[in-house]
Inverse folding.
């Protein structure tokens, strides 16, 4: 479920940073306006509880695999949308740092996919089902339905983020089918466990489960004034996404770039100047394998004229091999510098 | 998830080295910039990514981050990346000729995904293994994260290992009574519930303690951050090298040196 840095483009990562950062600022403001400081330590320990809960693995009947609680809906039902969102966002920061879940660039995506859907959408579902008259049945139904919708939304957004980043080749229909399918049983289990836990809390401390609904009742005028904020947020995200992707595509980067640089053409016209020019002069003096006899490469015009897709087959043999040799040389340099750094560092900690 | 490793990383962050002593803001900025440079490569970039290993390698060596720990974290992070990436070789069958043999372009993008994953995960792990979490929160606070969020991060961190310990006790208790089987959903539900009630009670007790000490909505840290010349130097070095490696792939330069 965690989106990973490796599958993201900077434009998509940046866009979701804006979305999640905005939601976080909004939540922090809402939380401050509610003025209930007594929830601060509760949020802290409940965040830690989410981690603890993930240690308790249970068996999933009929599959032989095991699952654990993710906790978004639980936090929303106990803390309300804003405090719940802040708590889950903090959990995701710690997961990204200490448990290698997701990554630092993917953090914005993950806070959105799990926090926004899990807590804010989850809480809206809770309020829609149990809002006016929170009976035990209604609370149970929300605990079941909330995770189902939130997790499927999250899984679907992972698909969209991956596709928008263009690193994975998975086609939309197959990937979304796969993700939604995998997350359906996960969501059912999450719903069952959330239901069990919320029911238990409801028996012992009913006010805690009702309070999160009540808080919103008191801040009902609040619901009207966060809509413009959300719209501003959305516009901001679209602008960021648009600007970043324009920035990305304005560079002659894309596919041609990587193809030609990595495996393709001999030299680009621009290489006469700048660092390339400088280095090519050095190279003429220092080349240690001057007549490195590979087959000369194909004419460049073909690759340059073609669109990004068509430039693919125009990959020449000689340069591909020296491209690999270049990579091997880089690795060699890395190993040597690693050894030198080890020597420099010495064995003991200072 | 590996609690032992998280604990190891956390304890490592409180040790001392050249890297540990750098300003957390410099390390956070450098790491973010590094990650963005890495993921901004087009999807078939493989050899171009190699020079970027210089950054995590240098940080890990001078920060005394154990290689074993890094590799374990990489292994933890890999399954989803591999799962998604592994489709590429089968879906992107554009042929690429490398001297005598031909491979699918999908293999290149798959390798690129793995390298990106390794670089991003390694740099994040090294960041937290050389910067204690509270110092990192100080840095984030400097970059204007909401103060409610900063307080939440601090409290979460403070109780994280306490509650993980409690969960471990519950696990042990269950194992001692049941042999080696896993709890059913019903049993896990009641175990989690009792842990949750204890957690909520703990929260109330902490609230009382915090009030007694005059909590006013923010947790103050005593350590001051001081930006020194070496921090500027470190940050500049990472920024300049990232830009250079991004714009002028080293493997290409070396290849052209060889080729002539």
């Amino acid at each position: 479920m965690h989106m990973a840095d490796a599958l993201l483009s900077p434009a998509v990562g940046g866009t979701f940073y804006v979305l999640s950062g905005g939601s976080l600022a909004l939540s922090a403001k809402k939380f401050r306006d509610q003025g209930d400081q007594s929830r601060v330590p509760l949020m802290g320990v409940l965040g830690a509880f989410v981690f603890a809960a993930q240690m308790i693995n249970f068996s999933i009947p009929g599959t032989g695999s095991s699952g654990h609680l993710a906790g978004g809906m639980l936090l929303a039902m106990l803390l309300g949308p804003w405090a719940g969102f802040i708590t889950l966002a903090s959990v995701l920061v710690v997961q990204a740092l200490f448990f290698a879940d997701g990554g630092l660039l993917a953090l914005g995506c993950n806070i959105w996919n799990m926090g926004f859907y899990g807590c804010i959408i989850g809480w809206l579902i809770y309020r829609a089902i149990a809002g006016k008259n929170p009976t035990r049945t209604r609370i149970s139904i929300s605990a079941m339905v909330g995770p189902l919708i939130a997790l499927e939304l999250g899984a679907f957004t992972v698909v969209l983020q991956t596709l928008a980043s263009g690193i994975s080749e998975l086609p939309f229909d197959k990937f979304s089918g796969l993700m939604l399918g995998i997350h359906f049983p996960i969501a059912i289990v999450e719903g069952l466990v959330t239901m069990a836990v919320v029911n238990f809390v409801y028996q012992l401390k009913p006010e805690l489960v009702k309070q999160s609904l009540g808080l919103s009742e008191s801040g009902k005028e609040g619901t009207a004034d966060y809509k413009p904020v959300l719209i501003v947020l959305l516009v901001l995200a679209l602008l960021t996404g648009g600007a970043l992707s324009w920035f990305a595509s304005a560079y002659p980067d894309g596919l041609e770039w990587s193809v030609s640089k990595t495996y393709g053409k001999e030299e680009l016209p621009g290489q006469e100047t700048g660092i390339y020019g400088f280095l090519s002069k050095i190279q003429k003096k220092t080349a240690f394998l001057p007549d490195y006899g590979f087959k000369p490469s194909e004419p460049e015009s073909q690759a340059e004229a073609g669109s990004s897709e068509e430039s693919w087959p125009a990959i020449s043999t000689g340069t591909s091999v020296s491209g690999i040799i270049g990579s091997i040389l880089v690795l060699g340099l890395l190993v040597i510098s690693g050894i030198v750094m080890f020597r420099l560092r010495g064995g003991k900690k200072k | 998830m590996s609690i032992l490793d998280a604990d190891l990383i956390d304890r490592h962050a409180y040790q001392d080295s050249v890297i540990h002593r750098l300003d957390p803001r410099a390390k956070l900025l450098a790491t973010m910039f590094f990650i963005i440079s890495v993921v901004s490569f087009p999807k078939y970039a493989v050899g171009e990514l190699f020079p970027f290993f210089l950054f995590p390698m240098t940080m890990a060596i001078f920060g005394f981050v154990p290689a074993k720990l890094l590799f374990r974290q990489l292994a933890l992070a890999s399954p989803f990346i591999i799962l998604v990436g592994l489709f590429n070789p089968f879906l992107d069958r554009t042929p690429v000729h490398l001297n005598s043999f031909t491979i699918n372009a999908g293999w290149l993008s798959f390798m690129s995904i793995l390298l990106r994953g390794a670089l991003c995960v390694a740099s994040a792990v090294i960041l937290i293994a050389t910067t204690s979490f509270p110092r990192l929160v100080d840095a984030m606070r400097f970059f204007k994260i909401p103060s409610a969020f900063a307080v939440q991060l601090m409290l979460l961190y403070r109780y994280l290992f306490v509650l993980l310990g409690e969960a471990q006790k519950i696990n042990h208790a269950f194992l001692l009574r049941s042999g080696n089987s896993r709890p059913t959903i019903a049993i896990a539900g009641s175990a989690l519930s009792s842990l949750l009630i204890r957690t909520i009670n703990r929260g109330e007790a902490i609230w009382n303690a915090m009030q007694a000490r005059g909590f006013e909505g923010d947790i103050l840290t005593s350590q001051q951050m001081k930006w020194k010349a070496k921090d500027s130097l470190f940050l500049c070095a990472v920024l300049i090298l990232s830009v250079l490696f991004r714009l002028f792939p080293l493997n290409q330069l070396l290849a052209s040196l060889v080729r002539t």
About this structure: Chain B has two domains: 1-131+228-260, 133-225. DSSP finds eleven helices and two strands in chain B.
